[in-house]
Write the structure tokens for this entry.
Amino acid sequence: MTKNKLLILLVLYLGFVSLGLPDQVLGIAWPSMRQFFNKPLDWAGILVFITAILTAVSGFSSGYFIRRYSISAILITSGLLTAGGLSGYAFCQTSLFLILATIPLGIGAGTIDASLNDYVAQNYSPKHMNWLHGCWGIGATLGPAIMTFSLGHHLGWRIGYGIIAALQLGLVIIFIATNSYWKRNKANQPANNNVPQKIHKAAAYLSVSLFFIYTTCESSIGLWFFSVLTEYRHISIDTAGKFIVCYWAFLTFGRFGVGLFANRLGNRKVLFYSFLGSVAGLLMLLSEEKVVILTGLCLTGFSFSGIYPSMMHETPKRFGSKTGAYLTGFQAGAASLGVALLTPLIGVFISSAGMAFFIPALLFLTLLMIILNKKLNELT
């Protein structure tokens, strides 16, 4: 690996950490924020929905920008948008301004996510794609830790958001300083302004659908399984909370483990074993035994860890660099839509049908992913 490529790789690691920083912060900050804005608990859902929808929209449109502008220009602009949105959270005085600050936050997050994924898929191995997504998990853990520190030391949620905004702005400065080192891929060339015809084929729709379903499964466990454990399985709040932490820990750091053998196995084999492990883990969650449930959560988290980065890294190999540049954005957008639309519907489903149907629903979606992935492999 050349010196320049190694430097950019280090920046990418920081970029993925930064990308994850804001993602889980609102849940920690909202109890304090809603007192200031005099809003009910569920009003935070409006902010989450707006962020997810705008992230999806910017992800869908990112292919347009990837093909016309350099990767560094996209990252600098997206970073400024994200830092601006977080700064808006830190300084806003009204709920309307809070909603307005959510707009650049969502747009910036979606574009930078798709651009980074496309760049890594084009220029680095599966190992680095998995490790980089592991860095996202570090950021998603560090963000709440920063906010918890700020609240715990009576600095307030504004200081917490201000610190995270400053970290994002610091990353923008790094992007600017390394501007000349970023490689301009063929996928970034503005020669052809038409969307490649290959993106309209059935395989492309299958690929996008997989991201929509996967993020639904991943986020649904984090959002709903705590309630299933405490209200349906009658497990204590403390124990259930620790179980969910273990799930996220294995999902996050599992990516570093998967990265160790991703190059040797290849993306498609990693996906095969990941899907099988996911089914095994989910089946264990049907048990009433705490040890089995905990083991199942750890196995599910570890198995889930390799799915998103492997699917994303395989995209340019399946469809070529030009189509891949567009499709990466569509996949990132579909991933956000899964969280924004289908994950809440899972909650509606188990509220009406009963919590006993939560794991069977996830098993159905996972089996559906296996079928779609098999068909996608046949087509590409």
About this structure: The CA atoms of residues 230 and 349 lie 18 Å apart.
